[in-house]
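Q: what does this look like with F7E bound?
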Amino acid sequence: MNRIALITGVTGQDGSYLSEFLLEKDYEVHGIIRRSSVDYRERIAHLEGHPRFHLHYGDLGDSMSLMSVIGSVRPDEIYNLAAQSHVQVSFDVPENTADIDATGVLRVLEAVRLCGLGESCRIYQASTSELYGKVEEVPQNENTPFHPYSPYAVAKQYGFWIVKEYREAYGMFCCSGILFNHESERRGETFVTRKITLAAARIAQGRQDRLYLGNLSSLRDWGYARDYVECMWLILQNKKPEDYVIATGVQHSVREFCQLAFHYAGMELEFTGEGMEEKGIDKKSGKVLVEVSPDFYRPTDVVNLWGDPSKARKELGWNPVKTSFEELVRLMVEHDMKKVSMERAKEQIRTNLEEYLEKGIIK
Ligand code: NAP
Ligand code: F7E
């Protein structure tokens, strides 16, 4: 019998990698998707039609849909990855963020309990280093106090504690992975890493003049998403339900990410000036390629995230540095250089076709 996993947030960056990972491990994988007026399943399109991959409509804001899917699928493992996951956006939609990222977790836990699966179903909750927020200790581990510093982080803090509560009150096997930033070729295009790699590729190919960013000095512990989904699975295979910090243990600034990404795209950046006046200049041409814009500053920003993955390394046998920072940036830039080339080629073909149609060369 194949084990059955249910993934909320299956269309997201992590959901897509986790689906691939679990299918390779012979799981039957079910995913919850939202109805959308446009097709937003690009990341999992290659999995649709797989005999062990099934999608169900549902929403973390809708208890009935969760009860219905969980009750019919009766999963052995649930990976609750669904969330309004953008920190800056959480300042614009704080109520929705709280509903999905906080109460949504409670809805999943209650649905499992009410469907009579409390003793058999293991639950992974996608928690976050944003809980450390205005950090009280560097680097951060499982014992570092939380100081959430955005509506997103406050909502995720509820998610963390309600998971712990269900574990202690009902003896359920539910755990949180406190994951530090993890990126990939599938990262959403408005997160800083992907925004940078796409811009570097567009600038290198003459499709964009300049990149505008916010706080260049912000520090992050960036890992590779493909490596991190393995840890989600390992956490649920553990003997005891426990929470784990998942990070690389290596820290870099947004500025450093930028310099490396532009380097892989064939440009060497030099940063001059300070604060809002800081600029990234192409050493060869002297052109300003990166500027700071107040639009990308947050009302409160988390600026010093650095994880200590010792517990995960020791207890789960997980390798936190499988993919190095340099390799991650290179992978993302290479992917985006190809993506931009493809876009250019498609546009050229469209222009040629339009011209041929206009001239009557083709009908
Ligand atoms: P992502 O790419 O933004 O994906 C989020 C997923 O949640 C998407 O599939 C989205 O569906 C779904 N979703 C949003 N609202 C929903 C709702 N109301 N009902 C059902 N599904 C909903 O995020 P990610 O980077 O894969 O992250 C996965 C999880 O890990 C999130 O919970 C995030 O907060 C957390 N996390 C991420 C990181 C990181 O660095 N990536 C670090 C720590 C924690 P649509 O496609 O329909 O929008
Ligand atoms: O910002 C700074 C920004 O949006 C990183 C989510 O997956 O990881 C992610 O949240 C840093 C911040 O990610 C721009 O101020 C500068 O300090 O890429 P980000 P995030 O906020 O760390 C955590 C762990 C999660 O849980 C979340 O779900 O970069 N920054 N300039 C910028 N950020 C953005 N987005 N855009 C800029 O132009």
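The pocket of NAP (ligand 1) is lined by residues 8-15, 32, 34, 36, 40, 59-61, 81-85, 100, 126, 128, 179, 181-182, 188 (CB under 6 Å). The first strand starts at residue 4 and ends at 8.
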